[in-house]
UniProtKB/TrEMBL annotation:
Taxonomy, superkingdom: Bacteria
Stretches assigned to the D-isomer specific 2-hydroxyacid dehydrogenase NAD-binding domain: 113-296
Molecular function terms, GO-annotated: D-lactate dehydrogenase (NAD+) activity; NAD binding
SUPFAM superfamilies on file: Formate/glycerate dehydrogenase catalytic domain-like, NAD(P)-binding Rossmann-fold domains
UniProt-listed Pfam families: 2-Hacid_dh, 2-Hacid_dh_C
Name under which the protein is recorded: D-lactate dehydrogenase
Keyword NAD among record annotations: yes
Amino acid sequence: MRIKVFAARPDEFEAFSKYEKKYGHELSLESVSLKPETVHLAKGYEGVAFLGNCTVNREVLKKLSEYNIKYIASRSAGVNNIDFSAANEFGIKVSNVSAYSPNSVSEFAVLSALSLLRNLPKSLKRSNINDYSLPGLIGREMRNQTVGIIGTGNIGIMAAKAYKGFGAKVIAYDLYPKENIDDLLTYHSLDYVLKNSDIISLHCPLTEANHYMINKESIKNMKDNVVIINTARGGLINTRDLIDGIYDGKILAAALDVYENEVGILHVDHKNKMIKDSLFNELKSLSNVIVTPHYAFYTDEAVSNMVEYSLDSLKQFEKTKKSSYQVNK
Ligand code: NAI
């Protein structure tokens, strides 16, 4: 298949070259993301590969259908950047790569939680000014924590195993609980999990229904000194309410690999320019908040998987008009 690849990063080039041959595609790589201003680059191609930071809205999908493109493959797991009703209306089949190395994200979530429990960011900052004193660095042990996992899919289950490996008690909420995993975790209502967790670890997709699931009301009901880990999607948290919860002392700390308005901020070097987002800047100023650049996925294994699965999916579409990675009808 002739494929236009959007948002191609240099670290993906090796995998593109390897899997282009394996799946017999012809690729054209673009570093720009897919959005209304760049969609014209897909003209003349049969398939498109893109990432979660692309804007796959109605306007883009309409153009793709005008170019007679029927198959598009996200190299990301999250699909909240895609207008599925428009994709269905224009007869465009969409796939994602949700099964790629879930260890990449789950390990990062647990790393973030351990770092916050042991005040690692604070201690590293202190060592920069040769302050090796102890006051303020006393931590909590993972084995004494109850961890609440929201979303027990590929990543949530791996995270639960890792938290449990450190001795934590794991409770969970999922719209579709899994069976036969009582030895790993126990399912409860969302309310119960939010009320009874020392650490809340978010691993569900962002949908219209759970937008701002972490908000003023839900924060009020959480345990005092709760730690919040978000490696899922920024829109799950109302950032303003999270900041207020930290000011109030209700939330001990938060690790955020994602941010509700992250497009144009995360994955961009702002060293020499101002970030014109006062909410983000306020968040960044808090000493008990870790903000990382949406890179929980970013391991050699995961990057290779993401490229391979998207090209495998487009091959399946080409051969059978269906794909095992397909997310719409
Ligand atoms: P998955 O599809 O395997 O699992 C998602 C789970 O969430 C499913 O069990 C589903 O039933 C559950 N769920 C759906 N809606 C829910 C709700 N409202 N409340 C509770 N549970 C709900 O997805 P996977 O691969 O585990 O990824 C989870 C999310 O992690 C992705 O949707 C994506 O947003 C995020 N992600 C972030 C990355 C990063 O680098 N920071 C990388 C990869 C994924």
